[in-house]
Amino acid sequence: MSQPKEIFIKTDRCLGCLSCTIACVVEHSKSKTLFGAISETPVPKSRVYVQWVEPDGKVPLVCRHCEEAPCMYACISGAISRDENGVVITDTDKCIGCWTCVMVCPYGVIGRQLEEHKAYRCDRCPDREIPACVSACPTGALVYETVDSFSGKVRKHASRELLRAERG
Question: Which residue segments constitute the domains of the chain, with CATH numbers given?
């Protein structure tokens, strides 16, 4: 069984440009175009949140699709489940808008579509090979890889930095 891919964040590369949020809105719009999306009702919402942290750090946050997803266990209508790829999904037909999932999410990344009274989250763009937010990131701050692949690259980078520091 192959490892599923995850969206990883390289916080040192994020400029806070919000390209990821715009790409997400467009991808989740009916029109699939920027100009069409801004005139839709309800206006499509981004599933990516860029959090500004003092003094100057920016962190893009998306649903982590937790292994023990508190939102899934808290959902009283059974609208939240996990698909065959391990992605936690919300069935909007079953969602009753009680916002229990919003309250229990440890990352604060489940949104509320108030006009439709539905919850929404990152779905990793199931119709795309690479999620829209990752494709749109101009600095490579968002990466779509397996845990092993990403961790291996981080270890290699950390090892190089340690060697440079030791050599002075």
Answer: 1-62+131-168 (no CATH), 63-121 (3.30.70.20)
